[in-house]
Specification:
This protein is of the alpha/beta class and 383 residues long. 39% of the residues lie in helices and 15% in strands. The strands form three sheets. A six-stranded parallel β-sheet has the order 3-2-1-4-5-6, sandwiched between helices. It has a three-stranded antiparallel β-sheet with strand order 7-8-9. The longest helix is centred in the middle third of the chain and has 24 residues, at 164-187.
């Protein structure tokens, strides 16, 4: 296990009512940074544990470093235990459908008079407004928030290939927690924090909104865009292997032509600068493609790197387990799974004082910490 001497959120206690990706991401970030995060699961466990298909990796990816407590909050006894546990915590996280926590009496308005220092984070589809009662999914807000339009070819909106808004929504929830903890240090009072999928997605599209505000022209989808650079594309090399190459300056273009063995191309007057090359881009790309089709990826990439030309192989997620940089930089760490096996998990993408917050405990089994946590409450309440 990857350990550090002390983490910045040690001493912060969090109770998490969540499932799927958004809320668990927020809880995992706080847990990785040292908070004690207690995940409340229903009898039988969080259904996210058993999702099939593309959801099969959700639970392992976003629930490390947490304790598992089983409570049935649909019963009076379960709700009473939840309220008592909340009183012993600094932060509540939830990402259930709109109105559910209010119906159960576990919402911020109900809890805050009793626990004025409580920081309460709701992860929803939408912030308060006309859409707030709608149910949302990552795909729904990608369609509504401009991301699918910008990602797919014209007329074919396409969602991003991962849960970008769920994950970023959890990140913004964690940022809100950190800010609220800081403010509580000054005021002595907690507050409600809200993070939402739709507003998150609009934030991702903000640059394109400003593009329109400045040009008065609707931005085209990324596959249809007019590139600012002549060489900025994916090329097919020998044996059908693909490689992205970007030459974004005159110097880089000349160097690229030299590296791939066609220096005369760089010397043609109509390719003398980037503006001219962009105007002749289809012909230029076709000529480069003919040359690059004779090169092997393994042979070309070291030469591109040595020459300072931006490039990238097209990598599948499964291949990242063997990525040499990811492994050398400490981006992967072993974790014992809830079934007793082992896997490597992706850590938070940051260094703090040269250290990488890592995995401190096995992935919790369903209800593994129920007795420990609830017994602690009883001990705390004893005279």
């Amino acid at each position: 296990m990857n350990t550090v001497s002390r983490l910045p959120l040690e001493g912060v206690r969090v109770v998490e009512f969540s499932h799927m990706v958004m809320g668990p991401t927020c809880g995992m970030i706080l847990a990785d940074l040292g908070a004690e995060v207690i995940k409340i699961e229903p009898p039988g466990g969080d259904k996210t544990r058993n999702l099939p298909g593309l959801g099969i990796g959700f639970f392992r990816s976003f629930n490390r470093n947490k304790k598992s407590v089983v409570l049935d909050i649909n019963t009076e006894a379960g709700r009473a235990a939840a309220v008592e546990l909340i009183g012993a915590c600094d932060v509540v996280l939830e990402n259930f459908r709109p109105g559910l926590m209010e119906k159960l009496g576990l919402d911020y308005a109900t809890l805050s008079p009793r626990y004025p220092r409580l920081i309460y984070v709701s992860h929803k589809g939408f912030l308060p407004g006309p859409y707030e009662k709608r149910l949302a999914l990552d795909e729904v807000v990608q369609m509504m928030g401009g991301l699918s339009y910008m990602t797919g070819p014209a007329g074919r909106p396409l969602r991003a290939g991962t849960s970008v808004n769920d994950i970023m929504g959890g990140m913004f929830g964690a940022i809100g927690v950190l800010a609220a903890l800081r403010e509580r240090d000054a005021t002595g009072r907690g507050q409600e924090v809200q993070s939402a999928l739709f507003e998150n997605c609009v934030f991702l599209s903000a640059q394109h909104m400003q593009q329109y505000a400045m040009t008065h022209e609707a931005p085209p989808p990324m596959p249809s865009r007019v590139s600012a650079w002549s060489v900025y594309d994916v090329f097919t090399l020998a044996q059908g292997e693909q490689l992205f190459i970007g030459a974004v300056s005159d110097k880089q273009f000349i160097t690229l032509c030299d590296v791939i063995g066609c220096p005369r191309l760089a010397g043609e007057p109509r390719f003398a600068n980037n503006a001219l090359r962009v105007a002749a881009r289809p012909e230029l790309l076709a000529r480069l493609a003919d040359v690059l089709a004779t090169h092997q990826v393994a042979e070309l990439t070291p030469r591109l790197e040595a020459a300072g030309i931006p490039y990238a192989p097209i990598v599948r997620p499964d291949q990242l387990f063997d990525d040499p940089h990811l492994k050398a930089s400490g981006g992967l760490a072993p974790m014992q799974t809830d079934d007793g096996g082992m896997t490597e998990v992706v850590l938070l993408p940051l260094l703090m004082g040269g250290r990488r917050p890592g995995v401190r405990q096995p992935l919790a089994r369903v209800g593994e910490h129920t007795e420990e946590v609830l017994a602690g409450l009883r001990t705390h309440a004893a005279p």
